Amino acid sequence: MLTPAQCSSDPIPALHEGAIRHVLVVDDSRLQRKILTASLTRWGFQVTEAASGDEALDKICALRPDLVLSDWVMPGMSGPELCRRVRADAEAPYCYFILLTTKSEKAEVAHGLDSGADDFLTKPVDSNELRARITAGERLLELQRNMAMSNRALSETLDELQRLHDHIDKDLQEAKRLQQSLIRERFRQFDAGNLSLMLRSSGHVGGDLVGFFDAGADHLGLFAIDVSGHGISSALMTARLAGYLSSAAPDQNVALERDARGALRPRAPDLVVAEMNDLVLDEMETEHYFTLLLGHVALGTGRVTLCQAGHPHPAVQRRDGRIDHFGPGGFPVGLLSGVQFEAFEFDLTPGDRMLILSDGVTECPGPDGALLEEEGLTDLMNSLREVSGPPFLEALIWKLTEFNGSDDFPDDVSAILFEYAPQPKA
């Protein structure tokens, strides 16, 4: 049991260095406060006294003690009520709260703990028991403070990650605009028909690209690329490949050459694809490969010459609604050297239209996991037989959304639609 004499003969103590350094003693009895203060001071704690709950509340707000030792029964505000008021301040640092009481009934003890108290001691207070309870409180405070530090560090890390995410998202939005700008025109009307293009990435950016270029007198060059993978590296690859098939710089377009008179003309597409295969393997340090459909249309005759390198077969919807698929399939570009690529030809007649799609369409899954495939594409094209131009490509996306059950497709979707409708000669 603590007595006033215990504080009189001890030397000046060293400051306590545990998690609890500052203790607030709350008791309406001056004698009891002095008894507790004497032992706490001898043990090295900084001690502040309060004679009432109201005074204690003011000192807690001002001084933020680590431990509060409060009598249960006091005039005015009781110890449990003081504890409730302290716990109501969610912004305040956590302090360990011990109630001092003569009550020993379980219901009373439960009431004290429900008010937010961490522990209780029965009066008169035994010094050894008090020291043991303070030590237990220090362990709890140490854990709580370590957790608070960890939470702050985690919160700061999450904030930093959010800032990085926002920065990356901003960059990806800009990259998306730049990639979409690679398609300079989405619709072009020719004397021999209409050309429509569509590019839709599954994320911000993707590995698909479609385009066209002037291939000389009365010839229209076309290409459709699907680079393996998704995201930034695939998009960078498509941007580089677009430079080899540029419509703005024909002398840099590997699919074109000049004849003896200096006029542009298309090169054999199988030779061009073979050259691009060597170029990727020899000059590009990348693990990406890509599928490609490259060729040209003779606008005067409707003769189509293409080379298929792993890309889906072009579909031709005839004027009577019948749908034909062309091409040998072929091997993707950039996987193996020495691969032989094959060109093929077919004819368009007035009223026919040619649709070139990436595998994001034919391999789009339904809710049951079944893929659309060429049979589903045939049904889809027949259902849109009366729709033409850009509205056809928009409706294609709507139909694909219905089939998939969502507009969040797992792969990039790109398309070229060429509708052959030559003007009658005068």
SSE map:
Elements: E1 22-26, H1 30-42, E2 46-50, H2 53-63, E3 67-71, H3 79-87, E4 96-101, H4 106-114, E5 119-122, H5 127-180, E6 187-190, E7 193-200, E8 208-214, E9 219-227, H6 232-244, E10 256-258, E11 264-266, H7 269-283, E12 290-298, E13 303-309, E14 315-317, E15 323-325, E16 343-347, E17 353-357, H8 359-362, H9 373-383, H10 389-404, E18 413-420
Parallel strand pairs: 1-2, 1-3, 3-4, 4-5
Antiparallel strand pairs: 6-7, 7-18, 8-9, 9-12, 10-11, 12-13, 13-16, 14-15, 14-17, 17-18
Helix pairs in contact: 2-3
Task: Describe, in plain words, how this protein is organized in 3D.
With 426 residues, this protein is an alpha+beta fold. It has two domains: 4-150, Response regulator (Rossmann fold, 3-Layer(aba) Sandwich), CATH 3.40.50.2300; 182-420, 4-Layer Sandwich (Phosphatase 2c, domain 1), CATH 3.60.40. The protein contains ten helices and 18 strands. A six-stranded antiparallel beta sheet has the order 6-7-18-17-14-15. A five-stranded parallel beta sheet has the order 2-1-3-4-5, sandwiched between helices. A five-stranded antiparallel beta sheet has the order 8-9-12-13-16. Helix 1 links the parallel strand 1 and strand 2. Helix 2 packs parallel to helix 3. The N and C termini lie far apart (121 Å). The model is unreliable at 1-12 (pLDDT under 50).
